[in-house]
Each structure stands twice: as C-alpha cells, then as structure tokens.
TrEMBL record:
Gene: CLEC3A
Entry superkingdom: Eukaryota
Keywords: Lectin, Membrane, Signal, Transmembrane, Transmembrane helix
PROSITE patterns listed in its UniProt record: C_TYPE_LECTIN_2
Signal peptide: 1-28
Organism expressing this protein natively: Branchiostoma lanceolatum
UniProt cross-references to SUPFAM superfamilies, sorted A to Z: C-type lectin-like
Any GO MF annotation of the entry: carbohydrate binding
Protein name per the record: CLEC3A protein
CDD domains (alphabetical): CLECT
Length: 218
C-alpha cells in the first residue's frame, strides 16, 4: 500500500466510509428518507404502495386488485424490512393488513399460494382460529410484538399496502431496508446513538489513513 497514489487512497477512503454507512447501527440507517408518494420499488421490480385509510380486509383486497396487485406479504427478511420501513413511514401507529388468510388450516396469499418458509409472527402468534393477519403497529407500547405478524378477524379496520409487479426502473434508497421501525418510532435517542457510533467508526478509518500517509495531510 506504500506505493499507492493519493487518488487511489482517497478512493479507498470513500469506499470505506460508504461501507460504514450501511453497517447496522451506524449513521446512515437513520437517514433513509421516507418516499413522498408512499410507495417503494424493490430491485426485483416489486412495488409496495401504502394507504393509511382504515378498511376491512375485503376492502384492502379489492383496492389492491384494482391496481393489478394483491395485499402485500413479505417472502423473506429483506421484504419484511422494506414493508415495515414503508408502513412506519406512512403511520407507525396503525396496524397494516397482511396478504395471507387461513383456509382449511393453511395460510395462503390472495392467489392461493401457500405461505413459504419465511414468517415473522409475534410472540404467541398466531394464537387463535382467526382467518386474517396483520403487521402490528410500530410504536413502543406493544413491546416485542412491534412490527411482527399477528392473526385477527377479517372485519377489523386496518391500513394496507398493495404489492404490485412493475418494471424495476428504480430501486429502494441505499440502506433504507436497515431503517427499522423502532428507529422511526422512538423518541430519537436511538438515532443519536447510531449517529455517534457511525461518526466514531468513520473517524477511526480516517485516523488510520492519516497515520499511514502523513504527507497527504500536511
């Protein structure tokens, strides 16, 4: 590394700082902006479009069907994080419908496809023979249940997110999937801790470069 040019070193530093921004617990995960149109397009081309209005499950189903989609159901951890991120941008005090129903004892989506291996049920859920499901609201008063799944009756009134297949013409904001509900629902203390931790990590990286190449910094 002793023969590296200043440009190469600067580029490496930028890359290192960029990696710091995406590490869990560092400053960038509190900076992901909420989308102004309440929608999010994933790299795969799947779009989530959120509605804050409360409705029965049948109402959410019909509205999503009219948009050419279905009530959203995450299929993996990344989709779960993005769905939670979007719902808490829209209203972290509302529960949101999940696009699965229990039919003959099997949880399936609106197209009839059985729920796969990924689930995010809250502790003790599903607890009864209730046919519909939702994502628990994102504020702290619900404890460990926050942002996880629970079963319910289909005539409850919840907000909803539609899942629509579109062309992947743009992707989610960098690191937005790491912006968890707790960071948007708390009083800001966690955000400050994350900022301090991220800044400290960036300072350590910069300090190592300064020590290794003092001539570059006067």
């Amino acid at each position: 590394m002793g023969n590296s040019s200043p440009m190469a070193i600067s580029t490496s530093l930028v890359l290192l700082l960029g990696l710091c921004q995406c590490l869990p617990g560092t400053f960038a995960q509190t900076e992901a902006p909420c989308p102004p149109d309440n929608s999010l397009v994933l790299p795969s081309g799947k779009m989530y479009s959120a509605t804050e209005d409360l409705t029965l499950y049948s109402g959410a189903y019909e509205q999503c069907r009219r948009q050419g989609g279905m009530v959203a159901i995450p299929r993996d951890e990344e989709e779960q994080r993005n769905l939670v991120f979007l719902k808490n941008c829209v209203n972290n005090g509302h529960p949101f419908w999940l696009g699965i129903k229990k039919i003959a004892g099997v949880w399936s989506d609106d197209s009839g496809t059985a729920l796969g291996n990924f689930t995010s049920w809250a502790p003790g859920e599903p607890d009864e023979d209730k046919p519909c499901s939702y994502i628990v609201k994102g504020d702290h008063e619900v404890g460990e249940r926050r942002d996880n799944w629970a079963d319910t009756y289909c005539h409850s009134g919840f907000s909803y997110i539609c899942e629509i297949e579109v062309q992947p013409d743009h992707t989610v904001p960098p690191c937005s999937a790491a912006a968890t509900a707790s960071q948007r629902a708390d009083d800001g203390s966690m955000a400050r801790v994350a900022t301090i931790a991220g800044s400290a990590l960036a300072s350590i990286v910069l300090a190592h470069v300064v020590l290794a190449y003092p001539n570059m910094f006067g």
